[in-house]
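Hi R.,

Here's the chain you asked about this morning:
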Amino acid sequence: MRLQTILNRFQKLHPKEIDLSLKRIKGLCKKLGNPQDKIKVISILGTNGKNSSISAKFAILKEANFNCNVYTSPHILKINERFVFNNKELSDDELADLFEEVENINGNNPITFFEILTASFFYKAAQYPKNINLVEAGLFHRFDATNILKQNLASVVTSISKDHLDWLPKNERTIQKIVFEKTSALLNSNIIIGKQNTIETMNCIKKTISQNASTKIFFKDDFNYSVGENDFFYYEDKLGELRLPLPNVKGQFQLENISTAIAALRMLNFGIKEEHIQKGITKISNLARLQEINSGKLKKLIKYNKLIIDGTHNEDGARALNEYLQSLDCNKHIIVGMMANKNHEKYISYFKNISSLTTVDIPNQPNSLSGKDLMKKFKNLPNVKYQPNIFEAIKSINLEKGDILLITGSLYLAGEVLNLN
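And the predicted structure, written out as tokens:
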């Protein structure tokens, strides 16, 4: 209750949810003693794969006995997920104590919700100067609250694609503009560029960072992976080849994110051994990213069928998710709910050979699109229907033996579903 009360106060400190500027975060961090200048950070930015890349790095580093602090957004089940220190989430009381201290130092000055959370993370992280900090950038990067570091260990760039276009001028909603916003302000240290969906995007990134003096490595040019037989895959860079077990997370695209994570850690020469990587990638924790649900209230409704939750919400994520679905020899049923600012038609166009599609409302999200309006956008697709909630949606689907049920379209929906379950 105390934690939620503080968070409610945080949300009233600024009239806008997002206000792209670094002035407020810099002002508060100066009052806090500029904690961001006292920590060792690996910055992770991109459109898709950021959380997966962080989760892989975190798992490998823990296996190598490193202590980490981790800052991600948004959270899925509870805000504590965003605040990991010494490899553990803060408890409600610990988080409330941290927030109250930062709140008092802020002195009721205007600051966005994400900015004061970011300042709080930096403030706490400075108490662990020897830890490795894995910090996920929020919207874009150039004016993101995490982009106030003077130096970092490395910047890791995952797949970049079109998303959050409503924050760009209508005449600048291009991949070139998004690449500029995400990569033009990267620090001079080390830059690791993960696999991109098109040659155009990769070339655009290379051009944008061409004057950056960092040491740079690129997927395919400097590191790569291939899928082997008998549940193994191969990773290769200039340091040699690794034969690795398949990770405990689903989807071919996860190998892309994991390979990028491995490339970053090997580049930084932390002394991580092959055995740390082998064991670490089989212990990755990744909520709402192709997460199979094996028990709970919703799982009981579908009994022996597979239930998978995935927070994919943009066209690039939909493409990768469909690739995974097409690798499965079974009927696929999808329940989808989405936020209003997404390209709904483009998103759903990537899914092929779907047995049924059910739209739902996302509860507790005023910026979501109603399930009825979403159904209207999908009216040209076969077997589309609307149900007001997840329980009714699941009950309405005629699942046969071996069928799979996927709930997707939004991380907010994923969080609601996991809480319901």
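The chain has a mean pLDDT of 95.

Let me know if you need anything else.
M.
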